[in-house]
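Input (structure):
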């Protein structure tokens, strides 16, 4: 039986959604905060995640962005009263698979969740590559040919995020969130220092991959 995670801070609505999903044969766990959702996802693999935007500790889209930056392809349905066009665009561009405006019928919600669950799983590379560089996340190694070098945890998350963007610019805030988390305060030059170290390590293993500053946008990897 599929199991989904519901991130909704209104207890009455959360209870109604859970009841509707379970009646449709879909198990549902509920949490009301972003930090609790991240904890739940570390403990349990979910078939889909249903996410409210206005939460006590932030915007639900922050969770969607972090999942995608981490390479997690779990289907995400955003549920929110923010139904302006730009809100829907923001949701989809953040990596959400579907967007449902409140108020909604339980029949429509169940139908959309079922549609998400029918999608074939996305295959994620266990060893991301870009150009002549291959990353082994489980060992925190970056390799080029026969050369290899270890990465600090923050460096690993930054280079993985850049590689997943595949030459598209990544905003500074997104790289900071990937490396240090959404809630942790980051010193102003921490990212610059990490990028400097990564560039030196790419040079040390003889790679042609460059981390470039895209003016007013962010950073991107190029060959």
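Output (sequence):
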């Amino acid at each position: 039986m599929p199991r989904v995670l519901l991130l909704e801070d209104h207890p009455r609505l959360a209870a109604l959604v859970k009841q509707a999903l379970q009646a449709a044969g879909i198990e549902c766990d509920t949490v009301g905060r972003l930090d609790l959702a991240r904890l739940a996802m570390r403990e349990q693999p979910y078939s889909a995640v249903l996410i409210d935007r206005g939460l006590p500790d932030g915007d639900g889209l922050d969770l969607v962005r972090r999942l995608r930056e981490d390479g997690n392809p779990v289907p995400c349905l955003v549920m929110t009263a923010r139904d302006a066009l730009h809100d829907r665009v923001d949701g989809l561009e953040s990596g959400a698979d579907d967007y449902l405006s409140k108020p909604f019928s339980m029949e429509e919600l169940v139908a959309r969740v079922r549609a998400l669950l029918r999608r074939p799983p996305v295959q994620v590379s266990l060893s991301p590559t870009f150009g002549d560089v291959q990353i082994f996340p489980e060992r925190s190694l970056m390799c080029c040919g026969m050369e290899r070098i270890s990465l600090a945890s923050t460096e690993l998350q930054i280079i993985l995020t850049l590689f997943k963007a595949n030459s598209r610019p990544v905003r500074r805030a997104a790289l900071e969130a990937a490396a240090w988390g959404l809630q942790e305060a980051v010193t102003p030059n921490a990212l610059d220092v990490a990028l400097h170290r990564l560039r030196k390590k790419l040079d040390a293993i003889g790679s042609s991959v460059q981390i470039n500053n895209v003016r007013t946008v962010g950073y991107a990897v190029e060959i």
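Notes: The chain has a mean pLDDT of 86. The chain has two domains: 3-118, 129-222.
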